[in-house]
């Protein structure tokens, strides 16, 4: 089984690209979706213990947690110490299930793949990229996003040029959906044929 890692900085089109792999029948483990489910499950109690007042009614209040982290960005490590092991546990369950089914290719959608040492967990890496102006437009169009919040997120991510230099494959999403789909299809064909 080939484990393909998908990563890219915020606003580069990673989630849309992951869906394109899924549309071609490639099983996708989406780390963001896993975190979302953990924020209404296993991560709630430890996050509340570490960041009091950031959960309500059995759910992590993302706005409250984001506010706490903005006030003290050094606390990201404490959050990661809670969340990353839980995400990896779900990832292992996903991989074990697909190994048992002899699935030829799976995709791990990992936003901070390089930053968290995830390169060792995958066979090949796809980096999604686009022009910085397109990235900025996409991110600032998101509800609740501010220039300061965008800068805080970028500061925690490896620069795009470094990610591209470490990639086995690069998908440029700046040319539109059809172009990105064609690039995804080429990668899948390369890996499976």
Automatic annotation (TrEMBL):
Gene3D superfamilies according to UniProt: P-loop containing nucleotide triphosphate hydrolases
Record-listed ATP binding positions: 11-16
EC number: 2.7.1.24
GO cellular component: cytoplasm
GO molecular function per UniProt: ATP binding; dephospho-CoA kinase activity
Subcellular location: Cytoplasm
Enzyme class: transferase
SUPFAM superfamilies linked to this entry: P-loop containing nucleoside triphosphate hydrolases
Catalysis performed (reactions): 3'-dephospho-CoA + ATP = ADP + CoA + H(+)
Pathway: Cofactor biosynthesis; coenzyme A biosynthesis; CoA from (R)-pantothenate: step 5/5
Biological process according to GO: coenzyme A biosynthetic process
InterPro entries linked to this entry: Depp_CoAkinase, P-loop_NTPase
Coiled coil: none
UniProt keyword terms in alphabetical order: ATP-binding, Coenzyme A biosynthesis, Cytoplasm, Kinase, Nucleotide-binding, Transferase
Family under the similarity heading: Belongs to the CoaE family.
Described function: Catalyzes the phosphorylation of the 3'-hydroxyl group of dephosphocoenzyme A to form coenzyme A.
The protein's name in its UniProt record: Dephospho-CoA kinase
Organism: Pararhizobium antarcticum
Gene from which this protein is expressed: coaE
């Amino acid at each position: 089984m080939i484990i393909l890692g998908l990563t890219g900085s915020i606003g580069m089109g990673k989630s849309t690209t992951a869906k394109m792999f899924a549309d071609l029948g490639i099983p996708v483990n989406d780390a963001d979706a896993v975190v979302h489910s953990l924020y209404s499950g296993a991560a709630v109690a430890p996050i509340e213990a570490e960041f009091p007042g950031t959960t309500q009614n059995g759910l992590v209040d993302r706005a409250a947690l984001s506010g706490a982290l903005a006030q003290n960005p050094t606390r990201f490590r404490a959050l990661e110490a809670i969340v990353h092991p839980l995400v990896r546990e779900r990832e292992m369950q996903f991989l074990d299930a697909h190994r048992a089914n002899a699935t030829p290719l799976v995709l791990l959608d990992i936003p901070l793949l390089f930053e968290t040492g995830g390169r060792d967990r995958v066979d090949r890496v796809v980096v999604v990229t686009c022009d910085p102006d397109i990235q900025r437009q996409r991110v600032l169009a998101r509800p609740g996003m501010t220039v300061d919040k965008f800068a805080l997120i970028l500061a925690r991510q490896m620069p795009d040029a470094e990610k591209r230099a470490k990639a086995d494959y690069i998908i440029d999403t700046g040319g539109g959906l059809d172009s990105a789909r064609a690039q995804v299809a080429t990668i899948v064909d390369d890996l499976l044929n």
